[in-house]
Amino acid sequence: MEKIKEQLWLLCSQHITATIRDAENAIADGREASRNETKSSAGDKYETTREMMQQEIDMNTTRLNKAKAQQQLLNLIPTDKTFTSVQPGAVVKTNNGNFYIAISAGQLIADGEKYYAVSIESPIGLQLKQRKAGDNFALNGKQYTIASVI
Q1: Gyration radius from the chain CA atoms
Q2: What angle in degrees, to the nearest 10, is found between the helix axes of 2-36 and 43-75?
């Protein structure tokens, strides 16, 4: 089972790397576009365009910082540890899907199976937190039964 954890961890890491790369590229593009924007006789239009570019840069800077924070969290998650209760690093199988408790990275496919990478602080993560195999809970009108925690 450690192999599946390593695969899921790697997929999460690749998700973060892509997010960081995309945000850095968007910031660089925004800065380049801002430098190339020439002041026209329509001063208000120039200022509005520059402000919109700056907002785009700020948004991508926030995205970049969040991704780097996720990367730091992911680096703390062990791939070689087996768990009996749900906590970061656990793989949880339920009657309504499989979950990897790490960072919010959405749907991942490992060994031909579908998993959802979720943060322990997400709504489903908070419901799963510290639960064990055999436990039940409800979320958004769905009943979940935990089949296994590893």
Answers
A1: 21
A2: 160
Phi, psi of 131 (to 5 degrees): -80, 165
DSSP letters for the chain:
-HHHHHHHHHHHHHHHHHHHHHHHHHHHHHHHHHHHPPP-S-HHHHHHHHHHHHHHHHHHHHHHHHHHHHHHHHHT--SS---SB--TT-EEEETTEEEEEES--EEEEETTEEEEEEETTSHHHHHHTT-BTT-EEEETTEEEEEEEE-
Owning domain of residue 17: 2-75
pLDDT in tens, 62-86: 999 999 999 999 999 999 999 999 9
Q: Quick check: is 29 in a domain? A: yes
Structure tokens at 119: 């943060």
Could you read off the pLDDT of 106-143 as tens digits, one per residue? Answer: 999 999 999 999 999 999 999 999 999 999 999 999 99
Residue 81 counted as domain residue: no
- Whole-prediction pTM value? 0.88
